């Protein structure tokens, strides 16, 4: 008697519907993966061409909803042939564990994390064309399970985020080498919190050294929290050029 | 209906398994964990409807026996084991756990030492045993 997990079939079927799935990775914490994910979502929907599905995969400490201006106490899960993601903006939807556990922490071991990945992918009824996955720091159970499921249905294109610091760049170097050695496609490297041309230079240099595309640098924004919520759209317009070129590259990556 | 999504996942999996083995008749046990507190009437109804549809469209006969599994937990810190019924759980917590059983780690603590670091040793959710 063999045991089969029915969620794997359902998860793959749901992932197949996307034109592009982008896991946003950085092994180093605090580089702004969540912030960049939110910026990208708004940037990609600027011309109303795409619908975006966001998945907050930082299960033990979900925070994407906060950047998107949502209060967890108001997040309600609706059932309709599965569960419906939360509507953030007309073209942006979100699934997050915060909708289930509100402001409680979710202490999870490896196998529990694998279960959450499978469950969320199996039962969520996404409607977006592009999926952005905001991942936790590191490179462990969450990342490995997403890659495992994605590789079987749709080539994932990983977006790497790094600040121009020595530690973040070293972490970027390590994960890049691992991903490339496994033939996992890297969409490119985004620099975040860049204060100067030198900062941008370090990101460019690292991308060149690792032979991955340099996508652009987002400047350091001292009052970033002021833009949480719908003001992210205002911020996207304020940042301008780097985000426009990153968005263009992402659009080109759509099959 | 969350039950429908789960029933679809089960049936899709069985179609996949039947195709892999070139079978037009597949037998399975669907194990339903207590923790996910699925509405069995709705789940069974959905399964029967889908089975019928699969038979009409693909001529694959799916035979399912539903087995319920009691939820049991073991604390990773003190080793204590307990059942779901040993603890009071609020309706909000029940609803969250219904969708994502791992939400139990946010709402349930070991009755002996208070730790949230526990293992769900049985009765987590839905899985399929092929016969």
How would you describe the overall organization of this protein?
The complex is a heterodimer of chains A (255) and B (131). Chain A is an alpha/beta fold. Chain A has one domain: 3-Layer(aba) Sandwich (Rossmann fold). Chain A contains ten helices and eleven strands. In chain A, the strands form two sheets. Chain A has an eight-stranded mixed beta sheet, with helices on both faces. In chain A, strands 4-5 form a two-stranded antiparallel sheet. In chain A, strand 9 (157-162), helix 7 and strand 10 (185-194) form a beta-alpha-beta unit. Chain B is α+β, with helices and mostly antiparallel strands. Chain B folds into two domains: 2-69, hypothetical protein PF0899 fold (2-Layer Sandwich), CATH 3.30.2320; 72-121, no CATH class. Helices cover 39% and strands 27% of the residues of chain B. Chain B has helices at residues 2-20, 40-58, 91-99, 104-107; strands at 25-33, 61-69, 72-75, 81-83, 118-122, 126-130. Chain B starts with a helix and ends with a strand. The mean pLDDT of chain B is 94. Chain A binds chain B through residues 1-10, 13, 59, 77, 79-83, 97, 100-101, 104-109, 112, 115-116, 119-120, 122-123, 125, and chain B through 1-2, 4-6, 8-10, 12-13, 16-17, 29, 76, 95-96, 99-103, 105-107, 116-117, 119-120, 124-131.
Strand arrangement, largest sheet of chain B?
2-1-6
Major sheet size, sense and barrel closure of chain A: 8 strands, mixed
CATH architecture of chain A: 3-Layer(aba) Sandwich
Q: What is the CA-CA span between the terminal residues of chain A? A: 40 Å
Helix content of chain B: 25-40%
Protein chain pair with the most extensive contact, residues per chain: A-B, 35 and 36 residues
